[in-house]
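dumping this here before i forget
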Amino acid sequence: MVALGLDKDGRKHILGLREGAIENREVCIGLLEDIVRRGLSINRYYLFVLDGSKALRSAVSRMFGNNVKVQRCQQHKRRNVLKHLPQEHQETIDARIRAAYNMATYEQAKQSLELTVKYLERLNPIAAASLKEGLEETLTE
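structure:
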């Protein structure tokens, strides 16, 4: 498991590395505790972008409280949806999801994603369920 941080210039920095399962809460807590021990302040404002791991989400809440912004990774969500679709539909659906994520407001993006879910329900119910699961968590207000 790797924790990356972005500086003000958009450069990526490896903050921590931990061997173990991402669904193991203790592994996730250990990673965050190590990052804090090495100097990351728990009193600053952060946006955590996570892959959907419930254990990691729980560890972030435990270490940083419930007032931090947490967003599910949009790239992971797109990949998870597309893997359920035949090749001939992937480009169109990916374009719809990307367009929603690029909308100006939370409400516009949510509405667009919900329309894509409805479209997918007719095309591929499993892909629709994949997009619907945690949909609001992929958006940050």
